[in-house]
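Record type: monomer structure entry
Structure origin: computed from sequence
Chain ID: A
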Amino acid sequence: MESIRKITEDLYFVGANDRRIALFENIYPVDSGVSYNSYLLMDEKTVLLDTVDKNASSEFLTNVKAVLKDRNLDYIVVNHMEPDHCAMIEEIVERYPDVKIVANQKTVNMIKQFFNFDIDSRVVLVKENDTLNTGKHTLAFVMAPMVHWPEVMVTYDTTDKILFSADAFGTFGAIDGNLYTDEVDYEKDWLDENRRYFTNIVGKYGPQVQATLKKASALDIEMICPLHGHIWRDKKDIEFILDKYNLWSTYTPEEKSVVIAYASIYGHTEVAANILANTLADKGVKNIKVYDVSKTDPSYIISDAFKYSTLVFASITYNNEIFPKMEALLHEVAAHNIQNRDIALIENGSWGPSANKKMKAILEKLKNCNFIEEEVTIKSALKEDSLNSLNNLADQIIKKRGKKIMEAKFYRCNHCGNIIVFAKNQGVPVMCCGEKMEELKAGTTDAAVEKHVPAVSVDGNKVSVQVGDVIHPMEEKHHIEFIWIETKMGHQIKNLKPGDEPKAEFILADGDELVATYEYCNLHGLWKK
């Protein structure tokens, strides 16, 4: 029996849930399962947007047949070639032999790697900004490489203003009847799993996500249909998740608080972690998280490492190395490209404590992270000297929370126009389109009529920015592309497009402070206040 949902007059949800799955990608725990989303557009031409995992094949194929009835399937758009979304392509081709496959060249190459049917005779090859008219609807294709595979693209229905976003804006968890984010308490019940999904699946590709968000900002989006999780149709919800993606993809903490991850065998290092947490709490730090790395899957700790500003790692010395579970976590942290954090280290050992040095060696590759000077060494069990050291560490963590973490440089690609922000101390060339990117220099005074220097007001945690004292043009030939704020904890960005107002609002995390404000004019460049 089919299980379909009508989204608009012409669009249907034909995906399926998998609540039996234990590990997503055979690594990430998904206690609430996962949804595999697929969409079918019933226009003069019929279009299937992505398929599903083979574990959901029966329900999916039944759904497609039920919506099509006696009609043929004209096109299948392949936005993403990961097997949880492409597994049923060959089956669809066998059932609907006249179907054309809409894909970019990298996708075509991957189809040939995964399957053995003739793709060349049925492919409709697309590139950036190509379109496909299906009758009432026109689909536009936007490349989104490395979000999170190299072939990824997103599809925009210019008629209904719907973005089919591939893996972006998705989440872990099966859909429990409520298909839309505005039908659930998303921030309370789903945001943590959305963050865990983003940070672990896409998190290391922050610059690529930023490039895609910039492209998306030029679109008038009224609905987002991801390949996992709920559909976004409420304007406030869409703004909410775009703001979160801006924070996560720029490695800006959401909260000024502390995550403590510890590895302990006989409990002494656990006691140290608990005492540090209690000390921080007594000194006013809120929302502290403490994890036992032997019991907690790394994906949950990675998620909170993106959320909070300070990371503490406490490990025993094990066979003169880091405890294996802690070592695995640290490599995960390094692999996910986390930036703009304060990091503290605690080690324990009975005859040769050496974990701190080895933990630091793994984490030193992280960009723009500060190691807190006080490193705690415990010999077997806490004594007065190590208790004093823990108290000093707590003081330094709190002191660091008031210091600026990031100072930024802006780089622009002369080929595609992409703008990337990096910390000043990076020391390596910034590349795009195979070439070194140009560094942008910010102006601070402006005699032009437009008055580009941002006008800024701060009310509590709310920062309001308007471009100049005179309203700046927002036309195709002359407009503001983005407004960017630098804070002590990181930065936030608001992408703009012609027709928008040249202003933005930002919400700072508790304890964060505004450092500088930038805006970028497509004609007159970068400006700072």
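Annotation 1: The first strand starts at residue 5 and ends at 6.
Annotation 2: DSSP finds 13 helices and 35 strands in the chain.
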